[in-house]
Amino acid sequence: MRKPDVKVVILGDMNVGKTSLLHRYTERRFKDTISTVGGAFFLKQWGPYNISIWDTAGREQFHGLGSMYCRGASAVILTYDVTNWQSLSELEQRFLSLTDTAHPDCIYAIVGNKADLTDACAHLVEMDDGHMSEDIQDTPHHPASTTSTSSVLLHKQVDRMDALALYWRILRYKGLEENASPAAERMCFETSAKTGYNVDFLFETLFEMVLPSILKKRNEGDASTVDLEHSTETKRTKAGCCR
Amino acid sequence: MDLDVQENGKAEEVRSSEASFVTCAETECGEFGSSLTNHISSVETVSQEGVSAELCGLEGSAEIPGNASPATVQETAASHLESAGGADGHPESVSDSASVEDAPDDSGEFVVTVLARGKLEEQGVGVKGSSSPLAEAAAQGVPSSHRDEDVTSESWRQHRKHVFVLSEAGKPIYSRYGSEEALSSTMGVMMALVSFVQSGDNIIRSVYSDEHRVVFMQQGPLVLVSVSTSRQSEQQLRSELLYVYNQIVSMLTQASITRIFEHKKNYDLRRLLAGSEKILDGLLDLVDSDPSFLLSAVHCLPLSSSLRDSLSQILQKAITPNLVFSILIAKNQLLTIVQEKMVIDDARLDPADLHLLLNLIGASSAFQAGEIWTPICLPSFNPDCYFYAYISYLDPPDCTVCLLLLSTDKEAFYAVAECKRKIEEAMQAQNALSAIAKAQSYSVSQVGVSDLRHFMYKPFDVPDNHRQLTQFTSPEMEAPYSTGDERMRLLDLYRDMHSRIHSPSRPLKLIYHVAERETLLAWVTSKFELYTCFSPLVTKVCAINAITKLLRWIKKEEDRLFIRYPPKYSTTPNPSKSSRKGGSDQQDTTDNGYPS
Predict the structure, then answer these.
(1) ipTM for the complex shown
(2) Residue range of the domain that includes A54
(3) Which residue of B has its CA nearest to A228?
(4) Is B204 within 8 Å of B73 (Cβ atoms)?
């Protein structure tokens, strides 16, 4: 059986597209999803590593489970909808406290999804990137065909600056040093699960960034441990990098 | 207005919903104001003729003192005389009822939306006929279409069965068709009806019109309303509403619903249920199309008893502390279920709870590659606490075989997921998946009884009955019941037979019913409940012979058709003991499972 090396959790309000993001990344396509029940666990093979991804339900009904999903997480993807200001503020109000159980080394990404609704550029699938080539089959990549996807762009309610500001507030909440943490510019993404814009980039970047913790954990011989909580404690004593 | 006086103690929300209703009555119902007047007069004439079934709820409550008709409006504590007009005695109540009748502009408006809609649907009924189930079946394929429906449109009114859920404060919580916001005034009317009748210490149970039955049910702080043209009995509609309520409880628990509304009477429960509409939609579609709900029994996939036993054994071996139910499902039917020993001793899994679980799985299957971990309450088991359900498909990407493991430990995901690996490995070793894939429902032709088209058989004499899941068996619906319309028609016939068999006032044991296009025979004994459908030309003698043959065939096949001895395991922390116990149970099962 494949043991997960590291845990990534996707959080965010309902209907921001968490399941779609993950689906785009793992299945390479966009389809209509229905509201996630509880949380869904996926094991993603990434090179020689196994990354467990928790796709959580955004519904308030399942709020109580959030901290369980986040326990020992190495990366948390906080997702909002660029056309919905409320979804960004919910991140801070409802979801940030859930990450208290995450690993002390945990990294945070702020992801504005549904960028295709507001930015013409999000309709374009990046051609120069090898990872994106698969998207070409089912995604229009000529600017002309953007009209078919959505002729009228919606008003963008959440600016990139808002996301950056949230990231800094998160660092402050976590008591992390700004210069010791990944730069906000690197950790704020705008994506479109529908067109695939930035989706691979998001996941690949995060996986690269959690790679050190994977290696560290493997070296510590914790790789076979499924209980991430336990490994958290081991880390804390040995690494002692935070606070 | 009468109602203000009578609702002296009621919360203000009601009055505000009244107000919003009145505006609604003017705007929304303006176009069919005339039909409303017609309708109300028709109700009056009918009720003057004393046909109790045609009483309208409001006037029904007022007329009960004089009419003494069967309880369309059921009284709670107070007598008829006191009830309608408060505690003032008979004369008062008469004048009250008169005022209700004399002031149709006011009180009538309260029923406007419900009844006027009823009226309109009545008018449209000729056009609609039996085509609506098909239309609905077609609409099922289009997600989210129901939510966007225009609630003022004719097509909205013509749905076969509407279901509404609202809070005691009149706040909309769920509507099967159309958005709740658009229906808030309609729901306000419903709540006004409920509280109007309540103010006289009565409980409104149903409103009957020519074509519609409006059934009300109050469960704690929630009010559920079914508006149906389906001709189902009030009892059946009520049990369907109970399913809806229980599905909501399964997501939130009864305790938390109560707590929420104790804390804040006008809480908008949609906040917590947002995203769950699809689950309720799916439930209502199932309730209409799957006889399991009618029979309160579980449908098992026919399987050779040796294969079922080996599947049970696989489940029995993959256990972890706090695991209480292991359930294997294929094609939305039960393959096998194994329960924790301790659990089975003090309670059992109710078919109703299993239906809710099956519906949840069906509704959450959109992203099937993952392993789902979610809290779920089983209302018949314990309405106040959660189980944690692990749901995973064993045969991606086909996703027909589903494993459901229920634990009482919130944190047990990884341990339970490990059980799944064990089950997966064991099933691979035995090539169980391909054996399951071959299993399918049977054709009625296998029974070898000519003229028999379809049947539903629910045994009561199963061994260990009081601890076992109630089951039923039924063949595929084949021609002439291969279209959605025809299937619904047969189910309606069954529902009708069922309601007559289980009629609270005059229960029947045996019905032989010659319908236009088929002949039906329903029979209830202490050992079984049986519904059969024959070709229309069958004679009574023929049908009875056929049933004798059918019963013999079922007896012969029962090991394949039913889970005869649901196995158990023990997850109490003593592995050696538990495995021994599990083994001995299995031994019993195989010994008794094959009657010679």
Answers:
(1) 0.80
(2) 6-239
(3) B414
(4) yes
